[in-house]
């Protein structure tokens, strides 16, 4: 449903190959919008130095313009051109790049990232993705590429090219299909301020970062509410990863007609009456659960939707019940995304 300010365009789909990467890089340099796989989720790329391309990206996503974007670069040398690294940032980059960690750093004096991408902040969020297709694309472009998750703002993040197509067909120029992603939740975002602050839990568990730094990470409190003007890391908009169905957390039983997002080997009372059941990881593995999280939320949401079209529908079919999930390791990021999926929608 392109809005009036988003001219419809034809969305090409290419299987990842050297030729596809060259086409994608040329498209980005020309100001185009290209979705591509990273190890966390699919990103929607635009030339980070091109304000017009970034404006089009915000429009395609329907994203509030105060929500700044992550600049993706191929390596630490390229990162140093846009962000000022202190000793902490250097250690974290050495330990976790390339990989699912984003560092928020002060901009360099000649940082080429457009103000529109950083929403006027004097900091820039930088990430060096590990995915070979993302790496090849960034090297071919030769400059920073901003890339939010390739979904309509507020929808569940895409972990396959088909998810991207479902959300953004007609709004972007190209999708590079590199198969399903590996991690399944977005990067961890760390603010490298005087005290390092965990702005968003994600693909690198906070315990791993704390082990490298030898200190506990600060966490911003209190959580900003939905609609707050200047969220600290605006992925923190309370309702962000939202399916259309209501999401009920910490479920210890299932009501008839609810869809169930399960975790671990145990069956919940009432599960036999669920509209649908998907298990994030039957063996209770949090890494496997992260990989499945967004895809299963989408699939259960579609089932809840289909149900509500029938006459036999009950209110309960509009609900996804979620079993408790441990908070350690990737569990912190999974629980964070589920909390947002469950937050009241405005
Ligand atoms: O894994 C990921 O990080 C994916 C892939 C595509 O790389 N990208 C992603 O981008 O999740 P996005 O735009 O959906 O989330 C970026 C988050 C937002 O919450 C944004 O507010 C925050 O990063 N952010 C960006 N720049 C910031 C800054 N200067 N200060 C604080 N937060 C910032
Ligand atoms: Mg996102």
Can you give a write-up of this model?
This protein is an alpha/beta fold and 346 residues long. It folds into two domains: 12-213, DHBP synthase (Alpha-Beta Complex); 246-342, 3-Layer(aba) Sandwich (Rossmann fold), CATH 3.40.50. The protein has nine helices and 14 strands. The strands form two sheets. It has a ten-stranded mixed beta sheet, sandwiched between helices. Strands 11-14-12-13 form a four-stranded parallel beta sheet, covered by helices on one side. The chain is globular. The model is unreliable at 1-6, 224-231 and 309-316 (pLDDT under 50). It binds threonylcarbamoyladenylate and magnesium ion. Residues 38, 40-41, 43, 67-70, 100, 102, 104, 118, 121, 123-125, 127, 129, 147-149, 186-187, 189, 199-200, 233-235 line the site of threonylcarbamoyladenylate. Threonylcarbamoyladenylate binds at residues 38, 40-41, 43, 67-70, 100, 102, 104, 118, 121, 123-125, 127, 129, 147-149, 186-187, 189, 199-200, 233-235.
């Amino acid at each position: 449903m392109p809005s009036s300010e988003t001219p419809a365009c034809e969305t090409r789909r290419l299987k990842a190959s050297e030729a596809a990467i060259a086409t994608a890089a040329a498209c980005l340099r020309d100001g185009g919008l290209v979705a591509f796989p990273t190890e966390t989720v699919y990103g929607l790329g635009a030339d980070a130095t091109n304000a017009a391309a970034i404006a089009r990206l915000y429009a395609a996503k329907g994203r509030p313009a105060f929500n700044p974007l992550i600049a993706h670069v191929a390596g630490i040398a390229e990162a140093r051109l846009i962000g000022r690294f202190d000793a902490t940032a250097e250690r974290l980059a050495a330990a976790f790049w390339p990989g699912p960690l984003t560092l928020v750093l002060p901009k360099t004096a000649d940082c080429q990232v457009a103000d529109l991408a950083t929403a006027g902040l004097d900091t820039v969020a930088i990430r060096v993705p590990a995915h070979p297709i993302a790496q090849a694309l960034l090297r071919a472009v030769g400059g920073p590429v901003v890339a939010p998750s390739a979904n309509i703002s507020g929808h569940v993040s895409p972990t396959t090219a088909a998810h991207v197509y479902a959300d953004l067909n007609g709004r972007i120029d190209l999708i590079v299909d590199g198969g399903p992603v590996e991690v399944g939740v977005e990067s961890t975002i760390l603010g490298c301020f005087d005290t390092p602050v965990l702005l968003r839990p994600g693909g690198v568990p906070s315990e791993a970062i704390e082990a490298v730094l030898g200190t506990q990470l600060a966490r911003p409190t209190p959580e900003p509410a939905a609609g707050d003007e200047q969220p600290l890391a605006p992925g923190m908009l309370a309702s962000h990863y939202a399916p259309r169905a209501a999401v009920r957390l910490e479920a210890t039983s299932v009501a008839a007609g609810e869809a169930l997002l399960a975790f671990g080997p145990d069956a919940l009372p009432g599960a036999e009456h669920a509209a649908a059941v998907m298990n994030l990881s039957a063996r209770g593995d949090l890494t496997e659960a992260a990989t499945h999280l967004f895809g299963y939320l989408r699939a259960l949401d579609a089932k809840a939707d289909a149900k509500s079209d029938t006459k036999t529908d009950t209110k309960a079919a509009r609900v996804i019940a979620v079993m408790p999930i441990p908070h350690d390791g990737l569990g912190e990021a999974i629980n964070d995304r589920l909390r947002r999926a469950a937050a009241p929608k405005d």
